[in-house]
Amino acid sequence: MSRPHERIVVYSVEGVLSRLPRYVVTALQALSSSATVWVFVADETPGEVREALASLADSVVQRPSTESAADYGAMVARITDLSGYDEVVLTGDSWFGPAGDLGATIDRMTARGHDSWQMVRMGSTPPEEFADEGFPRPDAPWLWTSVRTDVVRSPLWERFWAADGVPPTERERELYERLSESGRSVGIAFDIGDRIHADPSVFVPDALLEAGCPLLSRLPFRLYPPYLDRFAVVGREIVAAAEAAGYPSDLIWDGLVGSVPPKALNTVGGMLEVLPDSAGQKQSESALRIVVLAHVSDLPGAEDLFGKVDNLPPGYDLVVTTGNGLDAARLQRLIEARESPRLRRLEVRVTPKSPGRDMSDLFVGCRDIVLGGEYDLLLKVHARAAPHKTMNALRYFRRYQLENLLETEGYVRNAIDLFRDEPQLGAVFPPMMHIGYGTMGKGWAGLRDQAATLAAKLGITVPLDRVSPLAPYGGMWIARPDALRRLASHTWSHRDYDRRGMGERLGRLQERLLPLAAAQDGYHMRTILTSEHASISYSALEYKADQLLSTTRGWPVEQIQLLHRAGWTGYGGVVALTRMYLRLNHPRIARRTAPLYRVGLRIFPLVAMARRGVRASVVRARRVRTESREDR
Length: 632
Fold this sequence. Notes:
alpha/beta, globular
């Protein structure tokens, strides 16, 4: 009687895991049922994560953080005894799965008796990287390569890992070619590369899933969105294919939120939902406990605000904050006069007036509610004056924010059902407003460096978007309180919003950090629109993008790269245009002259101010002389 086929799985984990993602747990549970599993983690991985991994694997080994997550030569060398094993599988947390029957695929390839086999054919070259845009090639583990132990013991294996010049992440495609050239038998479990694309795991993963491949590569979700756009890689279709194969989408988002900038993930995943105004058939009376936190400093806008809030399912609680007792009394009477049968409990709180406005009221004045554990969902809204905005911009801002959260009873129930369907959905809010506002392209509002500092202080390691973050810019959203817990647990005070001239900037920082803080704890975001606002927004956005890209050649990804290399245009003056020319054509000179340009940025406004002052003085002097002559 022949002995069973024995294998070791070398499962490498990229980077440092601050928490154990559920997709890794699912993968290890599937692997451990038919193999001896060794998990290799960076030496900075927290002890509680290593302990959790130890319950899922036979061995957990720390590797130096300086060592690549794809350096399998070093990892296999740390396994003291390969005797008694027939093959070594080189893989890691670079895939979601299994989607379908992984065991059947392994049995099929084992029966063929190859010296080595890969799950899918690798492309001849890796996908492009865009380091300047914040998307360097990740130091990711291999997808799946199985090698017989006699190959691992051979001189060929030793020479392969001793060779210089090939990055570890690119060696998976190289190993297949080396073994084939040496006369070894090699195989591909799902070989659709020649028929569809040279690198199917990246560019057509949905076709692989439909062909029965049990693994879905994480890489397509981690590449630069305009690059994926060029090749029509649609993340929403990929996720749908994974769900059709039996793999939950929630595990996909859980495995991406910690490593992909939130706005990029929202784009790649197609995570904008255009919700219908009417209730779907699956909807029923909400059993979720909902609280509304409403900051009101503009009493004339309160009536419309509370009218929209009343589209919530019956049984919600309302907590209103305002800056003085007189306004509090007026708001109390206004709400009570409405006699809404849907409102369960009302509380009006008087909070100190602060530059932080609604954000200080949330994280200081209502901190007890956010952290109290009494509610399943929290709706944050406000009615505040914006005297620096035009009437049209202010009117559309209010429409955009309130209607995209609370348009009708059916619409609200559809939004709530998103949370019911996705346990790790942290918050929903309208996308960045771009009509009447110049937010696009500068959503950080000059606060990115401060955001990075505050994120580090809060223990947030999720990468920040380079240009604009995914954020509830209007300050209104529906969220799970647990998704706000990291921000709310920090002991803020009203003084923080005044300290060192911080003003309302801290509130803006908190808005922009909300998706990052939630992602750190495993929650993903979605943006939502009504069909009317989707029509308005898309039409305007398409026309603006068409105009902006009309003077540059190539695909959008190439046009964007060109514009990024050229850099900040300023007001298009001779200095800015010269600097752009140097950045594009003489980057070395541009780097050397950059300090002079930065000095100029400080001096030129002062010079311009002085020139305006001189001109004003000349004008005043002329006016005085003219008036004197007229008097005579």
